[in-house]
Amino acid sequence: METFLIVEQRGPVGWITINRPEKRNAISLEMWYGLQQAIKELERSGIRALVITGAGEAAFASGADIMEFEDTKRTPEAARESFLSVDDTCRLLKELPIPVIGAIDGYAIGGGLELAVSCDFRIGTQRARLGITSTKMGITIGWGHIRRLVEALGPSWALDLLLSSRLVDADEALRIGLLQRIVPDHAMLLKEAQALGELFVERAPQALAWVKKIVYDITTGVAAPAPIDDANAAIRCFETADFQEAVQAFRAKRKPHFTGH
Question: CA 119, CA 99: separation in Å to the nearest integer?
Fold first, then answer.
């Protein structure tokens, strides 16, 4: 199991690498559970940003491991466990109070794209190929995964991908919002992901968490707060040590050092 997931910290940036290149980084049921554990452990360690990527240049993740479908789909109970393992992992990423970056080289298909769309930022190489091929398999994906796809692309492009089961290349993915940046090769992908993570480390952790929560509250239809409640929530930032540090750093003409307090 440990072979299939490489978990590490590069300074304050956590990394999870799906390490099954001989299977195009297909994700088994055990690996979905391993991802959940790795995410929780890295969060507890105090990382300030998280990168998820795949080993090698062929795939970020080519989806669930079809070779184990005879086991994971053999009964309604088994299929339900398999479904929830993916859903729980993706929801865990969305609920993290830190930025999550998906670094995509090669294929991100099915469950691999569901994982990628659960990241806040997606960087890809020119080799990136992305799609949901469920209609080719005679199946559907869950409401939560479709909602996240609609949030990223809007309903028209989400329907395009879901109904057609086609794969989009990096340029089209950038145009429709599946990717936010394209880099030329694998080495630059890893470098850019780390640099983006380090950029977030320079920002105030509580401010990042607040903004991320509000954006996802808006896109998931959470009712807007009353103006007075909105004001009361927003002015909490002025009570933080990080706000005082930002003011002092500005006066001293230096970079602030944020701690999240």
Answer: 8
